[in-house]
Amino acid sequence: MSEEADLRSKIVRLGALLYNRQLAHGSAGNLSARLADGSILVTPTNSCLGMLHPDQVSRVSAAGELLDGDPPSKEAFFHLAMYEERPRTGAVVHLHSTYAVAVSCMCHDCTDDVLPPLTAYHAMRVGKLPLVDYYRPGDRALADAVRKTARNAHSMLLANHGPIVSAKSLEQAIYTYEELEETAKLFFILGDRPTRPLSAQALAELNAAFPS
């Protein structure tokens, strides 16, 4: 099986997994992965992650030109911005999962990092989670905001929208996304109860032991 065929099948299989785990719903959310030649496979516009076929997956150039498959997600442009700004990125996951979107709708005094480091796994996989200002769906100005934020973060939260997560592989990006959603869930479960996030010393020890 070719690299492209394998990656198309993986996008379909893992997309269905996310849908069945209720991390994706309806036609919301999109996945992408970069091929060795620099082109990008991305889920099509108005498609459901639970009902995709490999031939439907769009292949676009680094400039966003459709090369094969169905028309790409209307949000493919911010996937391309992530790849452009973070050359080591191999995959991007963007979903509208309930708890993470809820965090994106809240007022935050500081938008540099909107979820506390409640667990070591959140700190290792997600790290800082900056909040990007709201843009209407499809607004190309969002690409510049994502590109700017991606200079210092591989995960981010779009205001009133949902997370974008990037990683070296599709599996790693999905693991990171799931960790983000679980931390958001913990955040709401804990509510106003006194909590003990990881200290600066604990975070420094994690960074030293598990460098990104």
TrEMBL record:
<dbReference type="InterPro" id="IPR036409">
    <property type="entry name" value="Aldolase_II/adducin_N_sf"/>
</dbReference>
<keyword id="KW-0119">Carbohydrate metabolism</keyword>
<dbReference type="GO" id="GO:0046872">
    <property type="term" value="F:metal ion binding"/>
</dbReference>
<dbReference type="GO" id="GO:0016832">
    <property type="term" value="F:aldehyde-lyase activity"/>
</dbReference>
<keyword id="KW-0862">Zinc</keyword>
<dbReference type="Pfam" id="PF00596">
    <property type="entry name" value="Aldolase_II"/>
</dbReference>
<dbReference type="InterPro" id="IPR050013">
    <property type="entry name" value="OtnC"/>
</dbReference>
<dbReference type="InterPro" id="IPR001303">
    <property type="entry name" value="Aldolase_II/adducin_N"/>
</dbReference>
<protein>
    <recommendedName>
        <fullName>3-oxo-tetronate 4-phosphate decarboxylase</fullName>
        <ecNumber>4.1.1.104</ecNumber>
    </recommendedName>
</protein>
<dbReference type="GO" id="GO:0019323">
    <property type="term" value="P:pentose catabolic process"/>
</dbReference>
<keyword id="KW-0456">Lyase</keyword>
<dbReference type="InterPro" id="IPR050197">
    <property type="entry name" value="Aldolase_class_II_sugar_metab"/>
</dbReference>
<comment type="function">
    <text>Catalyzes the decarboxylation of 3-oxo-tetronate 4-phosphate to dihydroxyacetone phosphate (DHAP) and CO(2).</text>
</comment>
<keyword id="KW-0479">Metal-binding</keyword>
<dbReference type="GO" id="GO:0005829">
    <property type="term" value="C:cytosol"/>
</dbReference>
<feature type="domain" description="Class II aldolase/adducin N-terminal">
    <location>
        <begin position="9"/>
        <end position="188"/>
    </location>
</feature>
<comment type="similarity">
    <text>Belongs to the aldolase class II family. AraD/FucA subfamily.</text>
</comment>
